[in-house]
Amino acid sequence: MTKPMDEKRVGYFCAYTPLEVLNAAGVGHARLLKAGDSETVAAGELFTQSVFCDFSKSCIGGFAQGDPFYSAVDKLYNFHTCASMKRVTELIEGFVPVKLLNLPKLRDLESSRLFFRDEIFELKRDLFELIGHEISDSYIREQIVRYNILRKLIKNISELRKRDNPPISGKDFVEPARAFYYVPPEKLIDTHDKIYRALSAVSGAGSRPLRLMISGSIAADGDRRLLDILEGEMGARVVVEDHCAGLKPFYNTVKETGDPLLALADGYLDQAPCTRMKTLQDNVNFAGQLAQEYQVDGVLHVYLKFCSCYGITKKPFLNHFQSIDIPVLDLSSDYSGNDYGQIKTRIKAFIEVINARRSKKNGSNTICRRCTG
Ligand code: SF4
């Protein structure tokens, strides 16, 4: 949390939460993104059946365990993303006051935009009750500008990974990306600007590593097994993330003119689409565009077990990547750690296939059948 002790602190889960309004309210705010260990999952499982994903269980588990980061929250704001998170939010009301808001799924409709604007207005109204003073539109507009600067900086840092020899690893990139959710922009812009300048000055010389994209379910702050295996053990580089805790939320900016609440509604609905938004094909097309933009050699399509949203993307995702000739490894996992050896073996085989493919002039395999689930 980022504010002095006497100020209100709010938490949220989803990247569709307009931080501009939270920051304009002057509250401390943080995305509750910590997850990845089996103990927290077990604490959450006391409240749910096993068919909830491990991330949603961890969200309850963090509160149930009395994690100080979670306990510091005066109020939780959550948008209705997937059914699991809606139910989890209702349960969390037993620990902390909660405000559940709605997020339209049909993002292209004019009515969705007006509806979402109303929900953002409701967020603003509820924050007024929490903090006891009005949040002016001009201050929200100011925050839109600040957050846009920060989004552009994070995107610029990411784009340095388009170099043949990227100056930053995937493991290191997630730090400035996640700081976005923990530190307000007025404190972060200078730091990120310095990071960008320092990385820009790094020489691009050196050999081209094997370049990978991770796509799929949320990668929580604490769920770093894949990055450890890929970059720490296999020597590959994750050059781009198509998930909501990597590059994806920083791909677009919010309009800086006009009604700020409508601009936020448009901006957040127009951000790189989460698979819970319709249409599914938008999500798949964006993943393909990102993979081509960053010239990846292969993609890991990651499904967090029991995730209701990403549980249905596999077939269209594999079909699309086959059509653009980029190999995909489809992985399903959870936070138990039981499958570590199996995942490592499959990744190793996948990397061998990609390396063989790269070394062939006219390789014919587009999808590694051995490695896809
Ligand atoms: S991983 Fe899937 S089921 Fe879990 S919170 Fe995210 S969208 Fe919902």
Automatic annotation (TrEMBL):
InterPro entries attached to this UniProt entry: FldB/FldC_alpha/beta
Keyword Methyltransferase tagged = no
Question: Pfam families recorded for this chain?
Answer: HGD-D
Q: Which cofactors, by name?
A: [4Fe-4S] cluster
The answer on whether this UniProt entry bears the keyword Iron-sulfur reads yes
Keywords noted in UniProt: Iron, Iron-sulfur, Metal-binding
Its domain of life reads Bacteria
GO molecular function per UniProt: hydro-lyase activity; iron-sulfur cluster binding
Write down the PANTHER family for this protein, in alphabetical order.
2-HYDROXYGLUTARYL-COA DEHYDRATASE, D-COMPONENT-RELATED (PTHR30548), DEHYDRATASE SUBUNIT MJ0007-RELATED (PTHR30548:SF1)
| Family note | Belongs to the FldB/FldC dehydratase alpha/beta subunit family.
Protein name stated in the entry: 2-hydroxyacyl-CoA dehydratase family protein
* Organism, scientific name: Pelotomaculum isophthalicicum JI
